[in-house]
Amino acid sequence: MNYNLQRKSQLDARELMLLESEVKTYGKNMVVAYVLWYFLGIFGAHRFYMGKIGTAVTQLILSLTMVGMIVTAVWWVVDAFLVHTWVKERNAYVESNIIDQILVQKPISSDYNY
User: Fold this and answer.
1) Do 20 and 98 contact (CB within 8 A), yes or no?
2) Which residue ranges does UniProt annotate as crossing the membrane (predicted)?
3) Which of 4, 30, 56, 106 has a CA-to-CA distance to 13 between 20 and 30 Å?
4) How far is residue 30's CA from residue 95's CA, in Å, rounded to a whole number?
5) 46 with 81: CB under 8 angstroms?
C-alpha cells in the first residue's frame, strides 16, 4: 500500500481523479461485500463477489446439508473478519494496475535544455 502512495505522488490532479474513478469502477465495494456476507454469506455469496469461486462453491454445497450448515455457519463468522482485508487487497491491486497504465502512458519529461 505504501508503494502505491509513493507512485501516486507522481500523478497530477487529473490523473488522480481518473485513478479514483477507475478504482471505483473496477474495485470492490466494502458495503456490497458486507451486505452479501450478512444476508447470503451462508451460501458463499460474498466469496463469489470477491472472486473466490472455489471456496464459494464449497460453501454453497456444504450449506445444503445439516452438518455442512454448522460448518458453514462457523466459516461465515470467520469470514466477517476477512472480508475487510479482501476488499482492501483487491482495491490495492486494482489501483496498482491502473497506476501502472497511467505511468506507462505518461511522457517522459526531461530537464535538459537543447
Assistant:
1) no
2) 31-49, 56-78
3) 30
4) 15
5) no
Q: Cα–Cα distance between 24 and 33 in angstroms, integer?
A: 14
How would DSSP label each residue in 15-74?
HHHHHHHHHHHHS--HHHHHHHHHHHGGGTHHHHHTT-HHHHHHHHHHTTSHHHHHHHHH
The HSE-up count of residue 50 (CA atoms within 13 Å, CB side) is 28
* pLDDT over 70 (residue 110): no
pLDDT bracket for residue 32 (50, 70, 90): very high
Per-residue pLDDT at 83: 98
**Angle of CA points 93, 99, 35, to nearest 5°:** 40
